[in-house]
From TrEMBL:
Keywords: S-adenosyl-L-methionine. SUPFAM superfamilies: Bacterial fluorinating enzyme, C-terminal domain, Bacterial fluorinating enzyme, N-terminal domain. It holds the Pfam family SAM_HAT_N. Belongs to the SAM hydrolase / SAM-dependent halogenase family. InterPro entries: SAM_HAT_C, SAM_HAT_N, SAM_OH_AdoTrfase, SAM_OH_AdoTrfase_C_sf, SAM_OH_AdoTrfase_N_sf. Residues 172-256 form the S-adenosyl-l-methionine hydroxide adenosyltransferase C-terminal domain. It comes from the Bacteria. Transmembrane segments: none annotated. Residues 5-149 form the S-adenosyl-l-methionine hydroxide adenosyltransferase N-terminal domain. This is SAM-dependent chlorinase/fluorinase.
Length: 262
């Protein structure tokens, strides 16, 4: 095993939640190494958590365990699961948090029903500490997925909006907004190549219109909007040295259209 456990949560850093999960894991294996992917996921925002995990987790060494806790349904009948995707392992709620990466790759999943891997008498409101953290520590220490519980045929799927293309262009949506206010869409570079090709086009979003895709946001003057292909290989819209979310009046879920000019 890699002995690496990553953590992605919506807990923030004000309270004890993150540190106590690490304490529980160190009590099981003091040689574990932790990487904090993010604890600033907006509260209860499953889509944002799934986006961050999808874009970070596959870069880690094989057999890294990813502990993901964005869990608005904690204490309800939603399942707790462990999942293997490619050479990575994931632990968290079965609420759609793994559906972005699970839709893209084959997976092997197990429901966490073997309570010998949990803390005794788990709380109804803190499964991160009492179920997910100990399971993650055991996985990082060599436990097998099949020991954790019963197989799961299909994970819960978050109904992601997918871009639509036709002879007139592409309609997509803002899927994520990062710390800088950059608008990250679900329109891939390959879809743009396929649907737009060398045609002239205009991009419409919020209160602005763009007529080109530039290499990077620094390709335009300070304070100007730019459309470019970001590091996730999807169309992004930013303001050079500014905040596109605020300046363009755009929120997550907003429509982004690329219209072919005839």
């Amino acid at each position: 095993m890699s002995n690496i456990v990553t953590l992605t949560t919506d807990f923030g850093l004000q309270d004890h939640y993150v540190s106590v999960m690490k304490a529980v894991m160190l009590g099981i294996n003091p040689d574990l190494r932790f990487v904090d992917i993010s604890h600033q996921i907006p509260p209860q925002d499953i889509m944002a958590g799934a986006w961050v995990v999808r874009n970070a987790s596959l870069e880690f060494p094989p057999k890294t365990v990813h502990l993901v806790v964005v869990d608005p349904g904690v204490g309800t009948e939603r399942d707790a699961v462990a999942v293997k995707i490619k050479d990575q392992l994931y632990v968290g709620p079965d609420n759609g948090i793994f559906s972005l990466i699970g839709d893209e790759f084959e997976y092997e999943a197990y429901r966490l029903t073997n309570q010998t891997f949990w803390k005794k008498e788990p709380s109804n409101t803190f499964h991160g500490r009492d179920i997910f953290a100990p399971v993650a520590a055991h996985l990082a220490s060599g436990a097998n997925l099949s020991e954790l519980g019963d197989p799961v045929e299909e994970l819960v799927t978050y109904r992601w909006a997918v871009p639509i293309s036709d002879k007139d262009g592409i309609q997509g949506w803002v899927m994520h907004i990062d710390r800088y206010g950059n608008l990250i869409t679900n329109i891939s570079s390959s879809l743009i190549d396929e649907a737009i090709g060398s045609s002239k086009f205009r991009i419409y979003t919020g209160n602005t219109i763009l007529d080109e895709i530039v290499p990077t946001f620094n390709s335009v003057a300070d304070g100007e909007p730019a459309a470019y292909i970001g590091s996730s290989d999807t169309l992004e819209i930013a303001i050079n040295k500014g905040n596109a979310q605020q300046m363009l009046g755009v929120q997550k879920g907003a429509q982004v259209s690329i219209i072919i000019q005839k």
